[in-house]
Amino acid sequence: MLWITIILIIIIILGLGGIYYIITFNKLNDIKTKVDEAESIIDENLRVKYDTLIRISNTLKKNMDKDKNYFKEYEKLSSMNISNFDMDRKLNEGFTLILKMQEDLNLEKDEELNIEIEKIKRIDEKLTAAKNYYNKNTSNGNAIIRRFPTNVIARIHKFKVKLFFDGKDMDDEIIDDFKI
Fold it and tell me: How many CA atoms lie within 13 A of 138 on its CB side?
């Protein structure tokens, strides 16, 4: 009778351990899926923002001095191998330049230009939401991956700590990785 009780206790412990393992694995996969989904949304919106900025720059070039190309740097962005964070920063700089040039060239009443600028503002709202969603889920995933005993399950399935959207690693020794 004692052996049956011991075997039942072992089966119950193994069953609870298995249930915990499955729940943790599913939680890790769920967070990974959310982070990947946010990355996809960010990628797509950055591409649309880039295309829109190029269209706007072509419109502005028609009203500028032919010898000057203020947008040469931005036209090369698609062929450069840079992170989404750096691409986002460059596109924001390009958008600021466009707004300044719109003002300098007195094109505030150009309806086509205003429509494109409004498109970029809507894209920026989507990007902000996607970046916040990405960082929130990255933070949640990193917290789960670092805790015991979930870190064991994460190692078994090769889940790794991810960096935030801006590329910051909160665990490294670099304390001045904040960029303005």
Answer: 20
Note down the domain range covering 121. Answer: 20-156
Dihedral pair phi/psi, residue 68, rounded to 5°:
-105, 130
This prediction's pTM = 0.78
> How many structural domains comprise the chain?
1
CB burial of residue 71 (10 Å; 0-12, 13-18, 19+): buried
Domain assignment present for residue 162? The answer is no
In a domain, 175, yes or no: no
Range 106-133 average pLDDT:
89
Dist. CA 138–CA 152, nearest whole Å: 18
pLDDT digits (tens, 9 = 90+) for 65-118: 665 666 777 777 777 788 888 889 989 998 998 888 888 777 777 788 889 899
Residue 5 lies inside a defined structural domain of this protein: no
Are the C-beta atoms of residues 171 and 160 closer than 8 Å to each other? Answer: no
Q: How far apart are CA 94 and CA 98, in angstroms?
A: 6
Smallest CA-to-CA distance from 28 within 156, 177, 176, 180 is with: 156
